[in-house]
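User: Design a sequence. Structure:
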C-alpha cells in the first residue's frame, strides 16, 4: 500500500511539472494534478487486485473523465482543461517506446506483443473517456430540457 501512495504522489507531482512546462495557470494546474493522482490510484488499486489492463485503464480514465466533467461545470471552464493533464500518467509512452525498440532490435515477436498491449491500453483509455463524455452530454441535455419545460 505504501508503494501505491508513493506512485500516486509521484503521478500528481509529475503532472504538476508538466503543467508548469506548458504554462498552465494557477488552480487549473493543481486540479489537473489532483485528477492525475485520482486516476493513478484507481489504476494501481485495480492492477493490484489482478484486473486486466483493459479494465484498470478504462476505470481510471472513466474516473478522471467524471472528475473533469464535474469540475469543469463547477468552475465553468472546458472539460479538457482538466482531462488532458490528468491523463498524462496513464498515457502508454513506455509501451510505444518499447514497441519501437523491439522493432529496431529486430525482435518482431516482442514488438508485436508490446504493440498489442499498447493498443489495448490506448483503446481502453479512449473508451473510458468516450462513454463518460457521451453519458454526461446526454444527462445535461435532459436536465436542460426538463428545466425549459418547467418554465
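Assistant: Done.
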Amino acid at each position: 500500500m505504501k508503494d501505491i501512495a508513493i506512485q500516486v504522489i509521484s503521478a500528481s507531482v509529475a503532472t504538476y511539472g508538466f503543467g508548469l512546462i506548458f504554462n498552465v495557470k494557477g488552480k487549473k494546474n493543481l486540479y489537473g494534478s489532483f485528477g492525475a493522482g485520482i486516476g493513478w490510484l484507481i489504476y494501481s488499486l485495480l492492477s493490484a487486485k489482478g484486473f486486466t489492463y483493459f479494465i484498470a485503464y478504462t476505470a481510471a480514465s472513466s474516473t478522471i473523465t467524471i472528475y473533469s466533467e464535474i469540475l469543469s461545470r463547477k468552475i465553468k471552464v472546458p472539460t479538457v482543461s482538466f482531462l488532458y493533464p490528468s491523463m498524462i500518467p496513464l498515457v502508454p509512452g513506455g509501451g510505444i517506446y518499447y514497441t519501437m525498440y523491439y522493432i529496431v532490435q529486430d525482435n518482431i515477436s516482442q514488438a508485436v506483443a508490446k504493440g498489442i498491449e499498447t493498443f489495448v491500453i490506448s483503446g481502453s483509455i479512449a473508451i473510458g473517456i468516450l462513454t463518460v463524455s457521451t453519458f454526461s452530454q446526454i444527462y445535461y441535455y435532459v436536465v436542460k430540457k426538463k428545466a425549459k419545460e418547467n418554465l
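The two ends are 52 Å apart (CA to CA). Residues 108-149 form the longest helix (42 residues).
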